[in-house]
């Protein structure tokens, strides 16, 4: 723990573990803004204050553990190195029968074939349950969109610079809190609280059918999302939730996308398809999708109260062609 005296220009951010993740985000207004963003990135450094006390980093998993069980090995050594909050210790201990709390040599190296297969099957089933939580979880819905405003409100213990310690931004239900945290890790790491950014996502079209690149879709935003910062609609594949490679290198579309064309009344109609549209306006407003299943995420940074109180409603994504 650092006990020095900060200068007037220094902000001290403390964290309770020996390892932390730092995510730097810069808002980029387009290609012309890239040099300024790159300069900010180049000027960002991370320096150990006391080199004699540099942390060792993450423990290394046993290389003899099979790929099928590597998740359990990581869970075992990392949850011991960085233990959960006291309220969650009982949950951690409940995994003792499958070796998660064992210290020393990995219990997953010398398992019988039957035991290893049983654990691998359990992990597969758990991942399916997690996908189910993502697609049919507890968040309210509107027009097929899951309003996951509070998906990242699982922190109850540690509030630093910019974080608001307020019950409305905390998930009180302990079981739901664990599920939401796991779903957030699977579906989108490092999300903000809703006062910073509101996230909604959908897997289905206006007919309730899984979104798929074999079809063409549109969504008409009238008006566009009310935000003080910016908004964007980003494309992800399913079930891995990766960005989607495409011929125009467009992974999202939003209020900072150059060349988008608004309708005469100010609304914005976005075309979502795997194949490039032939119509000029549709092409300008095109968000490419994969050929298979996909899930778009709408992010609204510094959302207006109308977003969080749900008086601003995003329409369904409409199927326009089989």
Automatic annotation (TrEMBL):
Report domain DUF1254 positions: 2-47
Could you tell me which InterPro entries the record lists for this protein? DUF1214, DUF1214_C_sf, DUF1254
Q: Which Gene3D superfamilies match?
A: Domain of unknown function DUF1214, C-terminal domain (2.60.120.600)
Q: Which residues form the DUF1214 domain?
A: 196-304
Name of this chain's protein: DUF1214 domain-containing protein
């Amino acid at each position: 723990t650092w006990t020095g005296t900060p200068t007037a220009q220094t902000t001290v951010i403390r964290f309770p573990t020996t390892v932390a993740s730092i995510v730097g985000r810069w808002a980029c207004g387009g290609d012309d803004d890239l040099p300024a963003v790159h300069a900010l990135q180049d000027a960002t450094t991370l320096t150990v204050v006391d080199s004699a006390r540099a942390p060792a980093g993450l423990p290394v998993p046993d290389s003899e553990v099979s790929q099928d069980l590597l998740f359990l090995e990581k869970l075992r050594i990392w949850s011991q190195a960085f233990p959960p909050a006291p309220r969650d210790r009982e949950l951690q201990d409940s995994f003792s029968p499958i070796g998660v709390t064992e210290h020393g040599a990995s219990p997953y190296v010398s398992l019988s074939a039957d035991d290893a297969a049983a654990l691998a099957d359990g992990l597969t089933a758990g991942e399916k349950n997690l996908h189910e939580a993502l697609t049919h979880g507890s968040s309210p819905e509107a027009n097929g969109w899951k309003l996951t405003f509070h998906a990242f409100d699982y922190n109850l213990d540690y509030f630093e610079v910019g974080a608001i310690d307020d019950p409305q931004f905390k998930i009180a239900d302990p079981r739901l809190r664990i599920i939401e945290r796991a779903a957030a890790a699977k579906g989108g790491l490092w999300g903000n609280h809703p006062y910073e950014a509101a996230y909604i996502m959908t897997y289905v079209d206006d007919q309730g059918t899984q979104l798929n690149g074999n079809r063409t879709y549109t969504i008409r935003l009238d008006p566009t999302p009310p935000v003080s910062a910016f908004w964007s609609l980003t494309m992800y594949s399913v079930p891995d939730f990766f960005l989607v490679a495409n011929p125009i290198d467009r992974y999202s579309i939003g209020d900072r996308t150059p060349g988008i064309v608004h309708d005469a009344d100010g609304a914005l109609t976005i075309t979502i398809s795997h194949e490039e549209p032939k119509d000029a306006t549709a092409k300008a407003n095109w968000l490419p999708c994969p050929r298979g299943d996909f899930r778009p995420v709408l992010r609204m940074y510094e959302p207006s109260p109308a977003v969080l109180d749900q008086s601003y409603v995003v329409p369904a994504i409409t199927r326009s062609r089989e």
